[in-house]
Specification:
The chain has 306 residues and is an alpha+beta fold. It has helices at 38-58, 82-87, 100-111, 113-116, 129-136, 150-157, 214-228, 253-269, 273-276, 291-299, and strands at 3-5, 18-20, 29-33, 62-67, 70-76, 119-123, 140-145, 165-169, 178-183, 186-191, 234-239, 242-248. The strands form four sheets. The protein has a six-stranded mixed β-sheet with strand order 3-8-7-6-4-5. Helix 1 packs antiparallel against helix 7 (214-228) and helix 5 runs parallel beside helix 6. The protein is globular and about 55 Å long.
Length: 306
């Protein structure tokens, strides 16, 4: 497939709209289900870069939950403590501990559930059945991964009345070292941001204490790579193999820091015994988009950078 026609661009009035390779070659993706839009693909390609880089840097599978071209969180495949499972509403997922990929997405999705409502998902590895089962019950626009187990693919296809966006990407794809975009008819050109964030970056410790624990290095790498794909200004708090507070796109660095810090505080608070034992009604269901929300999401003008 050399090009894919989109429903419209960032806004419904922006037509025609499509994705294609500048050199006329084949696109490095397969669309297995649905019809992703312009914003969907911005989320898909940015989010996949994030999880691919985290896996390369840590050697662990990774997942991220993206919304409006910024990650709400990113995480590696570590088992969740029991309290975190309850706080993320995944304590009923059978076989969760046996799927590092599902653990990664459970962490990423569970960090900031309000921002993740209607997210785009990226996985560093082939999507398994447990991960697909977790994704199926969340309100989400689409997913990108290097592959899908057959049963997992069928589970995902059943979402959104069969219209869930599922994209497979060639994990060996290497983009052109020069990237271009147009603003107001004027073309910008620059080298891709290929800066490597890994353990080598953390070797030059300038403080008196030179000892950075291995777990802390993983958290630093996750935070730095998450920030690489977050709209500036951006701040990230990370702990235990995941980003727990991301502040994105604020004009003021102070407000950005407050936003990220508040999310991190809430992440901790949700795991407190008093919060976990709040007496919710048994009839209270999982979040789902109302008809008015769906109409509003379609009508809102989205102003996002490429």
């Amino acid at each position: 497939m050399k090009e894919f026609e989109l429903k419209y661009g960032c806004n419904p009035n922006q037509k025609p709209s499509k994705i294609f390779m500048h050199d006329g070659s084949e696109l490095p993706i397969e669309i297995l289900n649905g019809k992703p839009g312009y914003i969907n693909f911005l989320d898909a390609f940015n989010s996949y870069q994030l999880v691919k880089e985290i896996k390369e840097a840590t050697g662990m599978c990774a997942a991220t939950s993206f919304k409006h071209v910024s990650p709400t969180s990113a995480a590696v495949g570590r088992k969740l403590p029991e309290k975190l499972k309850k706080a993320c509403f995944v304590d009923d997922i059978e076989g969760l501990d046996d799927s590092p990929l599902a653990c990664a997405y459970a962490r990423a999705r569970g960090t900031d559930r309000m921002s993740s409502f209607g997210d785009w998902i990226a996985l560093s590895d082939v999507c398994d059945v447990t991960t697909a089962t977790l994704v199926k019950r969340e309100v989400s626009d689409g997913i990108i991964a290097p592959g899908y187990e057959p049963e997992a693919l069928e589970i995902l296809k059943s979402k959104k009345k069969g219209n869930y966006n599922i994209v497979k990407i060639d994990e060996n794809y290497k983009p052109d070292p020069i990237e271009r975009k147009q603003v107001y008819g004027i073309t910008f050109e620059q080298g891709r941001n290929e800066f490597k964030i890994n353990n080598e970056l953390l070797e030059n410790v300038v403080t008196d204490n030179k000892d950075i624990p291995a777990d802390a290095k993983i958290d630093l790498i996750i935070a730095l790579i998450t920030l690489k794909y977050t709209q500036s200004n951006s701040v990230c708090f990370a702990v235990d193999g995941q980003a727990i507070g991301v502040g994105a796109g604020q004009q003021s660095r102070i407000h950005c820091t407050r936003l990220a810090g508040n999310k991190a505080d809430i992440w901790h608070l949700r795991q407190h015994d008093k919060v976990l034992n709040l007496p919710f009604l048994d009839t209270l269901g999982r979040p789902a988009p109302s008809r008015s929300q769906r109409r509003r999401r379609r009508s809102i003008s989205r102003r996002l950078p490429a």
